[in-house]
Protein 1
Amino acid sequence: MATLLEQLKTDIRFLEGLKACINCGTCTAICPAAQFYDYDPRQIADTVQNGNELEIEALLKSDTIWYCGECLSCKTRCPRGNTPGYIIQSLRHLSQETGYFTFSGRGRQQLQVKRLVGDNMLKYGYCVYIDEIDTTEHPEQGPVWDWFRQNTDTILQKLGANYKGNGAGTLRKISETDLDELRKIFTETGAMERFENIENKFHSNE
Amino acid sequence: MNKEGKEIVWGEYQKEIAPDNYYYARSCIRQNFFPGSEETFLKIVGAILGKDIYDDPHQTTCTGIAYHSDIIPMETTMTVVARQFSLMNDSGYKNFIPSCVTSFGIYTEMIEAWEHFPETLERTKQQLKSATGRTFSLPENLVHTSDIIYKYKEAILEKAKFKLINKQTGKPLRVVEHIGCHYAKIFPAKGVGGAEFPSVLSGMIETWGGEVIDYPERRHCCGFGFRNYVVKENRGYPLSNTKRKFDSMEPFKPDFIVANCPGCTFFLDRWQYVIAEMEGKTYGEDGFGIPVLTYEEMAGLVLGLDPWEMGMQLHQVGVESLLNKIGINYCSFDKYKGANGEDIGMPEKPNILKC
């Protein structure tokens, strides 16, 4: 069976993200997540570069890899062309493939993300969709959002949108033919399997 | 550095922006949160500038938020991107213009991945063919929609009804510009001015008479952070990041903020409401907020378009202070009317933030 490091090296984001880290810490200095969380991208790069399997496994089971906001500010500034944000993407991928994401609270949040963003894409063809957003779950939307939701049809008509309509336009209904192509791509490329994995691994660990 | 050297360096951060014939790739977030801006872009580029732009009903999400929340494999995003390019091929267009900064980063990243790892391009071709029967070729020109407005900023100035000047004082309006991280931080050479000196928005502001504010956290991320916003319990992250920016820009007294990224525009608007309600702190004048505009709204105001037909009533931070400074005549009653002029009531007033 391939080691965790060998599995990471099959992800092109790992190959692009880790060239030769000199541990200067520039990524940590620029990182918004490092300002907010107990999070240090320099240490992440150091851990995977050292290649210690136990340390990598601990990382895959930790909250740590889920803090990154993927703004990719680190890519701009690394003096050696590394991208800790890409390393994080490869670690998150492997954490879900192995089921290690269920060992951390932050990792288990993937179920919420899948049920929100993943299910929106399959149902509507949009990552986010107005009908699924209310101020109970999104109080930051404020009273203007409640007003918008109460008067969606007429406001969107005023703005020239094509809400739930056929053909082109803002918030048009994406046809079943196009949704079918999207869903087939998800099946062909492993997204459906990933979704099932998130659901099943989560429940098998309850 | 001598002048010649500067020109060489600057030349690396200039990019070709096709002059016409655009395939418009829509944004999930903008269609939901700033629906008027999507339509305003089409109006400015099509009806006002006279360019050919195609709005394809067959496009879907690019998967950007899912990709950066890591719920789908990279192969999925690559193949969805390939399908979007296939749709562009079908329609006969070659210039692809996504209206979302996250999407712009996604499309750019996938093209670069195919270049660096050609075997992934072959795999994507096979997967797209197997799933949909489609083939695809790459666009000849890929730019963000804000690049189009930047390219035609002088043409917009020629048609301008208003400038970004305080009508009462005659002084330039002071503007904070915020560039979405994925516009140029991932691929600096793909953004006008690169990651360090992006000029896509500052170029518009200065051309239309405004003054750009340079403040310490100007290039800080808004904090969207994808899963850091999608999951409710993580939202302290984006809130804290944006507050850091507000605290940094506050002493410079901006008249308004403009952004080119859907998520950033949303957060810069809504977190002002949240901070006001939670902490009693407001960043604008006399208990109001700092108006936050999309670049189409800024261009639309310059061109004399009606703020309520552009959807500016859907901001949580009121924009009237800015309209008054520019000298735009607007009807307060029309703000809260429906498509046929009917009364549809008003949003409730926040407790602290004046609107």
Protein 2
Amino acid sequence: MQNPHTDTAETLYEGDQSKLYSGVLAHHDLSELKGEASRKQVSRIWKITLLLAIVTILEVSLGLYGHYQGVHVGVRNFFFIIMTIIKAFYIVKVFMHLGDEFKNFVTLVLIPLVLFVWFIIAFLADGAHWLHMNQTDPTRFDNKTEQAVPAKSPAKTPAPALQ
Amino acid sequence: MAQATAVNLSETTAQPKAWAGGRSPFNVSYGKIMMWFFLLSDAFTFGAFLISYGTKRYFSAVWPDPNHVFHSAPFFPADAQLPLLFVSLMTFILILSSVTMVLAVHAGHYGDRKGVVKWLLWTIVGGIAFLGCQAWEWTHLALSNGGLMGAFDDPATPLSKIEHFFAPASNIAAYPREALEATGNFFNFFFGITGFHGFHVSVGVILLIMVFLNAVNGTYERRGHYEMVEKIGLYWHFVDLVWVFVFTCFYLL
């Protein structure tokens, strides 16, 4: 087996960068597997597992309670979204190790996600606005006006030519 | 020798100008950065799908109730009312496979080949179990609906064929055509999005099997590090992350 420790940082940058940044040069021997740092990390992983399981159980319980007993939809959905974000946060931070990266890299990954804020608001508002138009504008194509209008409506006037 | 290289490395990483070249300002290898960027773009793909689902839902006066649509589980009678039971099982399978994946990554950090092999195998088992569950759910829904996507496209479909998808309180008799359209949209989005996610899981299982074989053959031991396990791990956690959102959007909200 080739010993990775014989490489220099300069040659690795042009060659196998992964060796440079995955910690093989600095620490982590097989002998440290039972060490305190390793055991601490494993127990952290299991703690997060427990947390994810508890959050999922809470979600399912509220879903079932809401189904059989009825819970205000706004309250219920707010709770579901908060719980989902909590799960996503811990999966990304601990399981994907984003919490262990440099702060500027974390920012680089998370900043583009801010676009989702406008993305969600704009598209849901659009959907809601269409529903509002369909239900309030009598010329629109909905169930009630459709019955009021004769089955065979006169031929549509040709659309004006595009300017 | 190890000592000398460690000193050398710390000298290199302690350069005052982070962007002067010769090292990664993020202390992350190129391959791992690119995996993060790919996942970021994939997040927007999934996000766009889920948001368009939300748009259609806001657009509709009535919408199927997931507790009435997804009420079945294998080994129970077809008419059993068991909302959320089966999908909770699927969610737990995927979360547990994510845990075994992170344990494989952890073993890789210490060059523990046996640990990597063991935990990767469990992750593959979890992925295949999840796909099996999804195959059952798809088959069940396709058989009872009369097809996958486009099963409710016929405008002559009678209300009696779709009314069991809705909560009794939602007044679908007042919106017969919207109810039919909403049912079609619901299932098209459901099969489209869970299908796209299932495709990701399938790809993930194939990648995991490749990494598993490499780990068994000692490829990573010869290379000196298990970063490939880490990169595939990032992908696998992302797939789990997407399922968290799919679960919320389709089954809970």
